[in-house]
Amino acid sequence: MTWTDKVVIEKCRKVSGNVAYSYGIGNKSDHSVLWNAMILPLISLELRGMIWFQGESDGQVNFAGFPCMFYAMIDSWRAYFRRPNLPFGFVQLACRPEDDLHGDVIAKPDIRWEQTAFLGVVPNKILKNAFMAVAMDLCDPQFTLGALHSPYKEEIAERLYAGALSMVYNISTPFHGPFPAVISTFKDGNTRIKYEDGPILLRNNISFAFEVCCGKSNSSAWNSCGPWNEAPLSSITDTTVTLDTSICKQLGVQFVRYAWRNTPCPYLQCAIYGADTALPAGPFVLPVDEV
Length: 291
Prior knowledge:
There is one protein chain. The chain has 291 residues and is of the alpha+beta class. It has six helices and 14 strands. It has helices spanning 6-11, 13-16, 33-39, 66-80, 109-115, 153-167; strands spanning 50-53, 88-91, 130-133, 179-185, 190-196, 200-202, 210-214, 228-230, 233-236, 240-244, 253-258, 272-274, 284-287, 289-290. The strands form four sheets. It has a five-stranded mixed β-sheet, with no helix packed on it. It has a four-stranded antiparallel β-sheet with strand order 8-7-11-13, with no helix packed on it.
């Protein structure tokens, strides 16, 4: 809320449930204070694009209202700078050690999913003319300035650069990793994920990389489905991943999710990457089609 004007805050007020406003030039966490001090003075400038590095505190502050605030902030900034299609690049939420004091409320995978408008990749029908750098594989628990802030800014910059080349300068460049085109479950107890933007590469066969929620199709929403069970990888091709989901054989597979941890992998060692791009597949939670 500190980076937005009060119009955006009021718009999302009912969703966020936060009614204690303190506009002005006080503490840096006051609503609109960073907008007033650091963005508003720049609106006379002409911009080619914007880059946003997501703050981890959204994992515990105004969590419920985050989607509304994020999308409305983008629209508001574009309006202030007089360019409704201004390219907007952002860094997906990084990571936080699971055993950290605040690890259960900061760097939530839910926030990463919400940053993509619940669609997994950008641009999309909600976040138009946008690009994103996945950062969940750029953690270093031993970093002297704290595990929360990755020291690997060069990798983040390279991923943003690829998006900017394509979205801002119209130079065709792959800028996001593989993402599922379709997920199908079969009666033999296997579930197959077919990826687009391949070929894909299995860099690290992490036991908890893929998880499934058993149940009848459309019987619940992904965020109320449970329990989640690890789904071991059975086989992989250039475009598909097959999971052993026999644990759901009686009920069926309702959802599959990937990399759904605060810190899903060591540095550059998540499970799925683009074989030609070295770009990581982002986290997802998606329904399954029964075959």
